[in-house]
Fold this sequence. Notes:
mainly beta, Immunoglobulin-like, 7 domains, 8-stranded antiparallel sheet, 6-stranded mixed sheet, 51 strands
Amino acid sequence: xxxxxxxxxxxxxxxxxxxxxxxxxxxxxxxxxxxxxxxxxxxxxxxxxxxxxxxxxxxxxxxxxxxxxxxxxxxxxxxxxxxxxxxxxxxxxxxxxxxxxxxxxxxxxxxxxxxxxxxxxxxxxxxxxxxxxxxxxxxxxxxxxxxxxxxxxxxxxxxxxxxxxxxxxxxxxxxxxxxxxxxxxxxxxxxxxxxxxxxxxxxxxxxxxxxxxxxxxxxxxxxxxxxxxxxxxxxxxxxxxxxxxxxxxxxxxxxxxxxxxxxxxxxxxxxxxxxxxxxxxxxxxxxxxxxxxxxxxxxxxxxxxxxxxxxxxxxxxxxxxxxxxxxxxxxxxxxxxxxxxxxxxxxxxxxxxxxxxxxxxxxxxxxxxxxxxxxxxxxxxxxxxxxxxxxxxxxxxxxxxxxxxxxxxxxxxxxxxxxxxxxxxxxxxxxxxxxxxxxxxxxxxxxxxxxxxxxxxxxxxxxxxxxxxxxxxxxxxxxxxxxxxxxxxxxxxxxxxxxxxxxxxxxxxxxxxxxxxxxxxxxxxxxxxxxxxxxxxxxxxxxxxxxxxxxxxxxxxxxxxxxxxxxxxxxxxxxxxxxxxxxxxxxxxxxxxxxxxxxxxxxxxxxxxxxxxxxxxxxxxxxxxxxxxxxxxxxxxxxxxxxxxxxxxxxxxxxxxxxxxxxxxxxxxxxxxxxxxxx
Length: 679
């Protein structure tokens, strides 16, 4: 009866909102197993059954604590690496936790553990899990209904009974995924290539000081969250953002920055960050683009005296320059002689020009090589090294045509006669052609010897044929047999003859000798067929005729090229030009040679020699002595001749096979030979 009354009191207390019901010790209360009651505080036999505001629970000896549902304190959505997710487990009655129970979650290739955090002595336990790299779940769930592990601890109700810890089956209404839509994305997006410029090919240089463009490829996110967007910035070193902070460009794969303040010669790096919808991010950096206001590498755009025909004077110092396409740093410059050391100096002016000075004395007929290396612009772009070669003048080459000839001889003689030291040479040292002179301020034998040494070398090493244009009075000559006589140009004090010929067949020598007060220079190169003769007079006496002995061993006509030039006593050119002289060998006697081939069919060649001007006949006869055809019947000059017979008679009819005779008559010379025609 007391139990019934107590039960009624409890119900009435609940009905009227009493906050506390106490069952005294020794009292008894009978209610159905697992009766579900709500109260503020219920104490039975001194034991606290439930407490708190609007606490509901099952009471009675048969009510074992068990899990009703799983959920989470977090809102639905995406969670990235480092985010904390709090999973909750609600029991049917208050439970007490000891130790560190754990809840195993399905997070992709590696399952993760949510560790117990709080909730002991209440209906709800909280387990915390931090998203790690590599974790992935499109909808977070525990691994199975048995995913809750005591891990050496305990979960008991208030009566010290072990709670039942099976979880709602994954995917069911009261499971974690049934109550929450939480996506775990611990996979970092993959980066690709950041390309300087907007094209496929990475730009190494850019000419703009205010604009830079970039594009990127290969960035992706292989999870369900997907790409949220890209951010791009610029730094003066890889990974820095000291030039331009991140700019959100959405899902665009390229971007152009404008209104920048860039420096010529500086290198800039773009950093592109990809971010997924969970908030994970990764970044890649370009290999850098260097600002170069001047497109292309630096290069030499010009240098002083760039003409191939320029000859560097040897008798005074020369100042030379090299110009560049853009400002450069100080390069490496070396200037070397092919035969000796040189004194020189150089400097870089305004970063765009090198000025260097060659100091005399400079060796004659030398090659001066100027080598410029390390041509690097302010952007660090290196140009191609430049080599400039200058030829120095030969000693005595006063007009700088790289040839010591009659022009120079005329200048030399004129200055000597007038005591003008302009063309004075002075003592010389070294070997021909690399002579180094030191003018001594007087014309004397040392000047003549220096000039002569160089003139002979020039004749030996310089090809002829430079006097092709005709100027002034035509040169007259006479070829009588082997004697060639050339007329001197009236008024000339200096003259030069140069012969070019085939040395295999022709030889040329001078017949007459120089007179007093005359200077003669001659060079005969019978190997190359180049002969040169120069004549100069220190008086008003001139050579009126020059005689040369010319011989030919060729049966064919050969040409001798005669080049000439004449100057007056003032060194003024009077006449120059070139002429061809035809010459061939003259037979010493008449001759008729064997035909070739013999026997023949259908053509044979007949050679014959005429030693004197003659009326010549050459006739073919058959074996009976009858005339077949006359091949030659005319006046001929001395020489070597040849003709062909095609086996036809005087009527153009082919003759029959057999033996034939051919006979030549010239003056008193008569000769007959036999030939055979085959069919």
